[in-house]
Amino acid sequence: MNETIALMKRHRSIRKYADQPVSEEHIRQAVRAGQAASTSAAIQACCLIRITDEARRRRLAELAGNQTKVARSGAFFIVCGDTRRHRLIAAREGKPYKTRLEGFLLAVIDASLFAQNLVLAFESLGYGICYIGALRNNLPEVDRLLGLPEGVFPLFGLCVGVPAEEPLQRPRLPLEAVLLEEQYPADEEVLGLVDAYDATYRAYLEQRGAEPEAWSAAMAGMFDRPRRGDIGGYYREKGADLS
Amino acid sequence: MNETIALMKRHRSIRKYADQPVSEEHIRQAVRAGQAASTSAAIQACCLIRITDEARRRRLAELAGNQTKVARSGAFFIVCGDTRRHRLIAAREGKPYKTRLEGFLLAVIDASLFAQNLVLAFESLGYGICYIGALRNNLPEVDRLLGLPEGVFPLFGLCVGVPAEEPLQRPRLPLEAVLLEEQYPADEEVLGLVDAYDATYRAYLEQRGAEPEAWSAAMAGMFDRPRRGDIGGYYREKGADLS
How far from chain centre, in Å, is Cα A136? Predict the structure, then answer.
C-alpha cells in the first residue's frame, strides 16, 4: 500500500486537539493542494474563510450545537460555495448571471473536492481534522456573524489541529454495498449487506464503550423528520437558484 | 513537500488513455480508500457504479456530449448520491423517511469527499482520471439506461485509466482569492485578483496552443443562461426533496 492510500485509510475524525496552532506555512501548502483538485470547467466556485477571532469562534461553537472543538482546535475554517466572482464578472461585462440547480451543485461539488484535498494535505502534515456539518444548524446566524455578501454561502466548517486523542476508526459499509457492477442491486441484497454491517457497527460501538446500536437503527432515527430547518430558504436568499 | 501533497499538486485531468484496463485489485483498493473519507454521522450516502458493457459505455459517451473518453478509458464509473439504503431501512422499521434540502446536500457532499479520495488513490497508483460533469447533460436518459431505483441518482461520471498524454496544468486562482481571513473581501479586491488571474490564464491557453481567452470572459459566457436543463426536476423525481 502506498503512502497516500495508507494515509487515507488511517483517517478518523479528531475531536480533541492539543493547544498548539497550525503553522501558516502548512495552511498555505494545504490550500494550494486543495486548489489543485479538479474543478468543473475551472469555475473554482468555492473559498475558505479562516476564523481567528476568539469571540467569534466561541459563538460559532455555540451555533454548531455547542461543539467546543470549534473554538479550541488549532485552526478553524469555513468552507463556502462561492459564486461571487462569477456574479461580479457578469455584472462588469453587462451579462446576466443565471443558473438553475446546476449552479448550486457545481459549487457544492467544487467546494467538497477542494476540502477533501485540503483535509488530506493537513493530515499528511500530521494534523487531525473534523468536518463540522452542524454549522448548517443555523446558517442565517452564521451568515450574520460573517457578513457574507450575496453568492457566498457556508457549506460546512473544518477544525484542524494537533490531535490530542487516538479514537477508534468507525467501520464502513461492506465494499460490495458501495462498489456496484452495471446496475443497482435488488432491495433484499441491499438489506442483507446492511444486516452484516449492523453487526460490525454494533461491535465497534461496544468496543468504544458506547451504547451498542445497529447502524440501521441510527439511520432510521436520523431521517424520520427533516433536520436543520430551512437551509434551502437560506441558500435561496443568498442567491442560489435551487429550481 | 511530502508525497501526498506532491501527488495532489501534479494533478491534471487526463482525456486520452492507453488501451489498458484498470486492475481489479487497484479498483478495490481505491474504493476502500474512498470509503475511508469522512461521512456525516456515518450515513455514507453514496455509491459507485462501474459500467463495463461496451454498448452502454458508448451510449453514455454520447449522452455526455460525445466524449469518446467515456467509452475508451480503462474503466468508467458513475458516482451516485445514494439514499436508497436509508429509505429501505426506514420502510422496514415502519418509520417515515423525510428530509428537506439537507438530505440532498449530505448525499452530494458525501459522494464528493468519497470521489476525491478515490481519485487520489487511483492517481497514487499511476492512473489518470477525469471527472465527467457532462453526465448531467441528460440525466433522465442516463437513469433509463441504468434503471436506477428511487433514491439513487447520478452526480458525475469518472474516467480512470493509464494516461496517454501529458497535458499542461491549468493554473488556479491566486491563493489570496481562496484563502480568506475572517471575512469576504470587497468587490474591488476580488476583481483585482480576477484581473491578475486573467493574465495567467490567457498565457496558459496560449502555451497550450488554444485561443487565448481571459478566465473572466470564459466565466461570463458560462453563466449567461442556465445549463443542463431541469436537473432539479430529475433529482426531485428520484425522491430528493430540494425544498
Answer: 10
Digits of tens for pLDDT over chain B (243 positions)?
999 999 999 999 999 999 999 999 999 999 999 999 999 999 999 999 999 999 999 999 999 999 999 999 999 999 999 999 999 999 999 999 999 999 999 999 999 999 999 999 999 999 999 999 999 999 999 999 999 999 999 999 999 999 999 999 999 999 999 999 999 999 999 999 999 999 999 999 999 999 999 999 999 999 999 999 899 999 999 999 999
Task: Name the 3-class secondary structure at A157.
Answer: strand
Partner B contacted by A184 (CB < 8 A): yes
Q: CA angle, corner B84, sides to B78 and B87, nearest 5?
A: 165
- Chain B residues in contact with A155 by the CB 8 A cut-off are 105, 109
ipTM over 0.85 threshold: yes
Closest CA to B42 of A171, A58, A77: A171
pTM: 0.99
Contact status of B55 with chain A (Cβ, < 8 Å): no
Interchain contact, A4 vs B9, CB within 8 Å: no
Q: Which residue of B has its CA nearest to A136?
A: B102
Q: From residue A197, give the alpha-carbon distance in Å to each of A37, A145, A204, A215, B85.
A: 32, 41, 10, 7, 12
- The DSSP output letter for B106 is H
Q: Which of A33, A40, A226 sits opposite B8 (nearest CB)?
A: A33
> Residue A73 class from Cβ within 10 Å (0-12 exposed, 13-18 middle, 19+ buried)?
buried
Restricting to A residues 132-171, those with a Cβ less than 8 Å away from any Cβ of B are: 133, 136, 146-149, 152, 155-156, 170
CB under 8 Å to B202, separation ≥6 — which residues?
Answer: B212, B213, B214, B215
Whose cell is 486548489? That residue is A35
Q: Are B77 and B157 in contact (CB under 8 A)?
A: yes
Which domains does chain A carry? 3-167 (3.40.109.10), 175-219 (no CATH)
* Side-chain-facing half-sphere of A177: CA atoms under 13 Å: 25
Q: Residues 57-76, chain B: which have Cβ within 8 Å of A?
A: none
* Residues A100, B184: C-beta atoms closer than 8 Å: no
**What's the gap between Cα B175 and its chain centre?**
22
| Helix and strand element counts for chain B (H, E) | 11, 5
C-alpha cell at A17: 486537539
